[in-house]
Task: structure prediction
Amino acid sequence: MQSLYTNGLEHLYDAMYQTFINYEEEYLFYSTLLNKYKKNQVLEMGSGTGNLAKYFVANGFDYHGLDYSADMVALASQKLSKKHFIQGDMRDFKLNQTTQSIIITGRTSSYLLSNKNVHNALHAIYNNLENQGILCFDFIDANRFIKSIKGGVNMEHAATYKQKTYYRESFLTPTTSNNIMFNWNAKYYEVTEDSKKLITQDDSEVRAFTKNEWELFLYLNDFELIECIDKPSYMFDTYVMVARKMAQKNPNVV
Ligand SMILES: C[S@@+](CC[C@H](N)C(=O)[O-])C[C@H]1O[C@@H](n2cnc3c(N)ncnc32)[C@H](O)[C@@H]1O
Result:
């Protein structure tokens, strides 16, 4: 899924994902959690083209988004305002001041391909959260999803946005990497009544996790797991974890 985030294809991502994901519902889900823990300040990591940001900003949250792709950041800044977005890497970032909460949505955690990536991200998140700050993130549940694609599975998704119809053909298959990963080979088309034009092809390896893995990663990085929510969502079986920053017990982990 890397090539969709840059070189002009961020516009294709923006169009297609507004059909795949109901961002208003996503907002209601995450804002309800943040309100429950009395957090009005939020940093979204992997903020993409700002589709979720729009709702946080409109509803008075003190919102910032961080994304690795300069092109995604530029498009989000154009749609909302530059002041909300920064280019950065969730595995190594430093805000000017700590924030009350951090969210990672849209299965962006799938890009933490190695355990070192996970520890580095949790270490950076820890350092950028205020004491008792809240971390919410979703992840692809390996126990369900990887079983469902054993042997390889084809999936098709269509999206219509601003009178244009796009089509994605995916082939998903588990790999034999060190972690629980799968190959996602995707072809993107623009479809009209009489043609189907290939726009781009994207082959990447992404990661799924078990709940137990995240429980341990969080514990080792001094987060207390407070909720684990089974969240129905498009394409993948997904859990959302809610964790609280605790006093540091073991500073030598990373
Ligand atoms: C699946 S998209 C999700 C975007 C957005 N959250 C949404 O729901 O539309 C993943 C995003 O994570 C970003 N990303 C991938 N690796 C990253 C990293 N190491 N640090 C920050 N952002 C990253 C990508 O550039 C992309 O915008």
Summary: The chain has seven helices and eleven strands. The domain at 3-141+208-245 is CATH 3.40.50.150 (Rossmann fold). The two ends are 28 Å apart (CA to CA). The first strand starts at residue 41 and ends at 45.
